[in-house]
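User: These chains co-purify. Model them together.
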Amino acid sequence: MERSPLLTSRTKVKRIPKRGFYDRESVVSILDSAFLCHVGFVVDGQPYVIPTSFGRIGDRIYIHGSAASRMLRNLAEGISVCVTVTHLDGLVLARSAFNHSMNYRSAVILGQAELVVDPQEKLEALEAISEQIIPGRWADCRLPSSKELKATSVLRLPISEASAKIRTGPPVDDDDDMSSEFWAGVIPLGSRAGKAVPDPLLDPKIKIPLYVEEYSL
Amino acid sequence: MERSPLLTSRTKVKRIPKRGFYDRESVVSILDSAFLCHVGFVVDGQPYVIPTSFGRIGDRIYIHGSAASRMLRNLAEGISVCVTVTHLDGLVLARSAFNHSMNYRSAVILGQAELVVDPQEKLEALEAISEQIIPGRWADCRLPSSKELKATSVLRLPISEASAKIRTGPPVDDDDDMSSEFWAGVIPLGSRAGKAVPDPLLDPKIKIPLYVEEYSL
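Assistant: Joint model of the two components:
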């Protein structure tokens, strides 16, 4: 396989190497079909893993949070982070317990998060996060005031050291198990969006926007 | 609030404290409605966050993997870990961009993972992981051989330092925004299981078991 710039000894998939991908397209396609990531960081030797939303602009991802939050304060100091995005696509039922698996697509990005100080980049990052979650919403809500922007921290992480890990397809059993009587196959898994529930305080004259009504995952 | 044994300065929810819960029931109910977690650990100062399945027996959770995997080898050395389980329940659309949120239930467990050496505990842990993913399967597949058990590492993490963080309900906007024309409400999110796909190599005489056909999330 051609050496990719995203591949380092730290992002190399060591376990079942054929599942590892290091091209930008593989990583970006996993990122772009998600908006939730798990961010790992270390404080006093203890790792913390926190779910949060993210957005992507080009070769950077952005996460945001309260300027007062423990995670953001720690990350803004430039410590090492790991951002992981996972899609669970199916349960893989093999004939043997040992060969059970899951179909999934996951991306891991390593690096140093940096605090975004430029107000224009900060606003663009917040728009990117919002549009990653629900396209169309940014143009249809009250945008942040300068006071609200000050209360929000945005962090930038370059997509420069990363990997994707992907499993697809049916179970793979040992030859000796192929004649067993156990059912084998895949149960597909996915996410779904339900029917939107208006805020009880919403003026009933306000109609549901199309991008909300037709929202899907 | 009564002091809970799961609460420490490290698990205390600092940002929006009313969303933090430290009772065993809150944590366990979040764990028991999931089978995927994100495990955080540190190697040479770099955090890694890896998705993996888990199982619970009493006040311990178990994860497993190849004895050869980087994660398992590192964790087996007794380093600190963070196991995070996240359910995303909804997008919360407020009138202001700033007050947008998500409904979620997440649990965070901190501690030191320990390698399970007792063969009986190891087998029970693997059964617990399997049953957490798909109840009924353990009794309907070829169980691990002693060679397969040797190739599998199982780690135990006590649920002794943990927290749950939960948000539910409609958006909360500033008073000044309540008369705006923007739609506000919640888009519920969840997981779904599709129709099971038999292995192309499956003997067509083998019927789909009920626990597969009726699998739901």
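The first helix of chain A runs from residue 24 to 32.
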